[in-house]
Write a structure and sequence with these properties.
The chain has helices at about 5-35, 45-70, 80-110, 125-140, 145-150, 175-215, 220-260, 265-290, 290-300; strands at about 150, 160-165, 170. It has about 300 residues and is mostly helical.
Length: about 300
């Protein structure tokens, strides 16, 4: 077992442990608030879907990479590879669209004075339905993944288009036109979501900057409580969006480099997967630090 593999295993083990711990704590908290109805916020349903999908991303990517790093070989067969990569793609897509939904809600909340945005006042009531719809959408969009994924035992018997540490995407590569069509079709949802999040982030920054200039003449603390709360929530969403866009773009670059090589270096594969999981690991700690309900629970437990 090479030293580089051990380093990779330790890195993914640390990442997976932190991600599972943070997302599991948040999932229990949001599930408790939704079941009991105590201190429920409009965004809690979609946050519940977000942390569940993040947890699934960490489990489906981090655990196999950790096992591979510590020397386990052929621990997944064809069915295991299909299930693991399929769940990873679905959960990552839901995480992307849930973050997009949060940014859209925050923009609508900041822009309620605009007549067009008043249509979105009932938007939070649809969060439960939207979350279920996102899962169904990505389960259907990524149905092609199990059709191409094969186990590592048979990867020498096929023409490989791309391979992972523990699984392979095989079969004869499609023609360039067909491959381009598939790429456009399957990436269109992600691209539209990323563009929308960037637009929403720019709109939120503009609204906050304009509000900051307008409140210079207001000296009442009572009038400034609501904007301060909205500003804090907006900063949280902006942090999540900027993290997702950064890690998504970096992971996409490494994934593209892997796809362009028939036999890519393993460090490219590992780095692409590691960056693809970083948002799912770091986002729960951003949510925990910004949610006053959770900090109050920690404070009361400490006392």
């Amino acid at each position: 077992m090479a030293g580089d593999d051990i380093v990779m295993g330790v890195a993914f083990l640390t990442q997976s442990a932190a991600g599972v711990l943070g997302n599991s704590c948040l999932l229990c908290f949001y599930s408790y608030t939704l079941l009991t109805g105590q201190k429920v916020r409009p965004t809690d349903p979609i946050l519940c879907h977000l942390v569940f999908s993040n947890n699934l991303v960490v489990l489906s990517a981090g655990i196999p990479q950790t096992m591979e790093g510590f020397g386990w070989k052929y621990f997944l067969d064809d069915v295991g590879c299909k299930v693991v990569l399929y769940l990873f793609r679905v959960a990552r897509g839901v995480s992307l669209n849930a973050t997009c939904l949060l940014s859209g809600f925050q923009v609508s909340k900041l822009c309620t004075r605009n007549a067009w945005w008043k249509i979105t006042t009932k938007f939070p009531k649809c969060f439960g339905f939207c979350g279920s719809f996102l899962w169904i959408l990505h389960l259907l969009v990524n149905v092609y993944v199990p059709l191409r994924v094969i186990g590592p035992r048979h990867k020498q018997n096929v023409t490989l288009h791309m391979h992972y540490r523990y699984c392979a995407i095989g079969a004869v590569p499609p023609k360039p036109f067909v491959r381009l069509s598939q790429l456009v079709l399957f990436s269109s949802i992600d691209v539209m979501s990323l563009v929308f999040m960037m637009w929403a982030s720019g709109s939120m920054v503009f609204v906050l900057h304009r509000h900051k200039q307008s409140v210079h003449h207001i000296h009442s603390q009572i009038l400034s409580r609501r904007p301060d709360h909205e500003a804090r929530a907006t900063c949280t969403i902006l942090s999540l969006v900027s993290m997702f866009i950064s890690f998504y773009c970096l992971s996409a670059i490494f994934t593209l480099c892997v796809g362009l090589h028939k036999k890519p270096d393993l460090w490219l594969v590992d780095t692409g997967v590691f960056l693809g999981v970083c948002f799912s690991v770091l986002s729960p700690f951003v949510l925990i630090s910004s949610d006053t309900r959770i900090t109050q629970v920690f404070h009361s437990c400490r006392e």
